[in-house]
Design goal:
mainly alpha
């Protein structure tokens, strides 16, 4: 695509955060604790949505999809990092790196699309409550989620194919803790300007179109909520939207820093710090955000605990 593939690199070295043994051990414990909390919290959300019939709605179906995505992203990125921190050997094979790139991109794109459809779900629930059961039928929101996964799969496959076509002839040190696209482009043995323009354009489409859809949805929601006469109704509507807006803010503020900046303004260490939030912190916080501000989730949890005891 971009010329002859002259790749001679069989493996990459993931630089990570530090090479100091004591700091590596501390990071190992911290990252292990975060990943376990992520898996436990998101598993709990999925179980609650599965067993409680009151949570069998479009909104909670999308929340379940987000929990699956958070768990998958953790499985894709964190175990490799933990192995590197424990062993001190930071090598990853070329094929494994490309697979990690493809899967992480797919998860990130799927989350963008899912968050947009969640905004639409809130819009229908608040602006057209009487029509909600008709508009957001099970067949509809299942197809929406399936479209998110399929669209993300093909987009990530296209970006990975572009990356694989680049010649990597050395150096092979990726200044990151997992194989992420912007960090890998810096190692290509060719001028990647055209490819970066294409990737930037795809990033704008994949990130900004769903974000614009979210903003438009909430403009309509705000207009309807502010026109409500009942203070209790306004409070309930804002509470329903607050969790989604919090997750959107956490996700877009960090991932946008990596993919929506011109190359000249990028700083590798800043990108790594931003990646920590959407790769480690955000997946751990999402189930906490949804459970703490959601009475139905807390009610489902209490019901499950009563049955367990």
């Amino acid at each position: 695509m971009w010329g002859q593939n002259g790749t001679s690199v069989n493996e990459f070295i993931l630089v990570g955060f530090t090479s100091h043994p004591t700091q590596q051990r501390l990071l190992l414990v911290l990252c292990l604790a975060i990943s376990l909390a992520t898996m436990l919290g998101n598993s709990l959300i999925i179980i609650l949505i599965w067993v409680d019939s009151h949570l069998h709605t479009g909104m909670y179906f999308f929340i379940g999809n987000l929990s699956v995505l958070d768990m998958l992203f953790t499985i894709i990125t964190v175990p490799q990092m933990l192995v590197h921190l424990a062993s001190g050997v930071n090598a990853i094979s070329f094929n494994r790196c490309m697979a990690q790139l493809d899967l992480s991109l797919s998860c990130g794109m799927t989350e963008c699309f899912i968050l947009a459809f969640m905004a639409y779900d809130h819009y229908v629930a608040i602006c057209h409550p009487l029509r909600y059961p008709t508009i957001m039928r099970k067949q509809v929101y299942v197809k929406m989620a399936a479209a998110c996964w399929v669209a993300a799969f093909f987009n990530s496959a296209a970006l990975t194919a572009i990356t694989v076509s680049f010649p990597f002839c050395g150096p092979n040190r990726i200044n990151h803790f997992y194989c992420e696209l912007p960090a890998m482009l810096q190692l290509a043995c060719m001028d990647t300007y055209r490819a970066e323009v294409l990737i930037f354009a795809l990033s704008v489409i994949v990130l900004m179109l769903p974000f614009t859809f979210i903003v438009i949805s909430y403009i309509h929601i705000a207009r309807v909520v502010l026109s409500m006469r009942s203070a209790k109704g306004r409070q309930r509507a804002f509470s329903t939207c607050a969790t989604h807006l919090t997750v959107v803010t956490l996700f877009y503020s960090t991932i946008g820093f990596t993919y929506l900046q011109p190359r000249s303004k990028r700083a590798a260490n800043q990108e790594k710090r931003a990646a920590v939030f959407y790769a480690l912190v955000s997946p751990m916080l999402n189930p906490i955000i949804y459970s703490l501000r959601n009475k139905e989730v807390k009610g489902a949890f209490a019901k499950v605990m009563r049955k367990a005891t």
